[in-house]
């Protein structure tokens, strides 16, 4: 058989297998799609340094890069399957079977898989093997013109069928109209957050605006596809070491007193000077009050929360129950229901802790337990179980290697020291004396604080550094530490050039 025909057989068979699995997954569970299940399992098994590299390099596009990489690998496997089967269909059949078994194993490994979920990878296995065997039989080694036409027609038919199946699976997966559910919600917090005062940011001089628009709020999570759960279907169980188990609906939450809090969230993946920090007016229910109603039993020191896709998080109970913790079961941000990618319908928000121990999105379960009894997702991978946000500061202006005018120049940035507040920010140029920056108006101790300083710069290359001090008098350390396992440390610096004229 010619190489071009054998390669075509391999590629079309792979496409048919993936499309069949995606179609059946649309009927039973979108997360059962073998392509997504393998991707999610790959995320779970990826070594920490590789994950850190992906987040650092690709940011919120890391999942797109993963999916594209998987597609490239599958194309390559299809080519290999075809080339190995030029004389016999058995090598390609074996490879197709192996890929099908891999899909089954990946689906069964997902924490939210049901018995029916295995039907999707099973369909991929059967269709992939059948398509490969049938196309191979249609393409004999020396085919006359009539047989070549039959082979091309057969190949085109299977490819077209794969396209229809893939589109059908996508349609079925999106048949739950989550956006309609979201649009039907009106949030009326009884206690609104105070207005952001004038002078809370230095956005005109290079800092972010004080409130981050919802579409620009950072996103770092393990969800390869965004869960689609309607508010009408949402249920959350509160159980474990409690006196009164509870099952709450979305309407139950809306009947409770809603409060609005201005809160900054920080991701532990944030490098020194990194972008994974944002601020929003979150709307929700007081989480500490809810746990008091459930009756937390003595000894329960961890709140284990679970997302609808099976991701788990562990939050120190003491951090939630502390006076003024501002911990919320959030249903909205910046005046509207949570966007899908930010956790709709319900997420946790616990200021003062890095997101991986405090900010479960697509929340559906909360269990009071102990740190000894349960290791959540990232603790199983060696990350710290308790992760308070560290005192940090960042330079937003100038940008790295920027060319700025000689003479008066404003350097600006942000700092944060949650639960305590920022007392001062200091800046130095080229290793000289530290100079105290001007702080923007403080909104509250759980939010970032902007700073600015005017410098008189001579011509040439310069390095500017910053450091923050909290109200307990602790100044952030210059000792460099990587984000994992409990947050980065070090002074942020920026190299730039002052030029005349």
Oligomer: single chain
Q: What is the N-to-C succession of helices and strands? A: HHHHHHHHEEHEEHEEHEEEEEEEEEEEEE
The first-to-last residue Cα distance is: 70 Å
Report the C-alpha radius of gyration, rounded. Answer: 27 Å
Give the beta-strand count: 19
Count of individual helical segments: 11
**Major sheet characteristics:** 5 strands, mixed
Strand coverage percent: 15-25%
Q: Calculate the mean pLDDT score and round it.
A: 92
Estimated structural class: alpha+beta
Low-confidence stretches: none
Net shape: globular
Helix content: 25-40%
Strands of the widest sheet, in order across it, are: 2-1-10-5-6
Write the layout of secondary structure elements.
Elements: H1 3-28, H2 34-45, H3 48-58, H4 62-84, H5 90-109, H6 119-137, H7 145-173, H8 178-183, E1 235-240, E2 246-249, H9 250-255, E3 259-266, E4 277-286, H10 287-294, E5 302-307, E6 312-316, H11 317-321, E7 328-333, E8 336-337, E9 347-349, E10 363-369, E11 392-397, E12 403-405, E13 407-416, E14 422-429, E15 435-436, E16 438-439, E17 449-457, E18 460-470, E19 492-499
Parallel strand pairs: 1-10, 12-19
Antiparallel strand pairs: 1-2, 3-4, 4-7, 5-6, 5-10, 7-8, 7-9, 11-13, 13-17, 14-15, 14-18, 16-17, 18-19
Helix pairs in contact: 1-4, 1-6, 1-7, 2-5, 4-5, 5-6
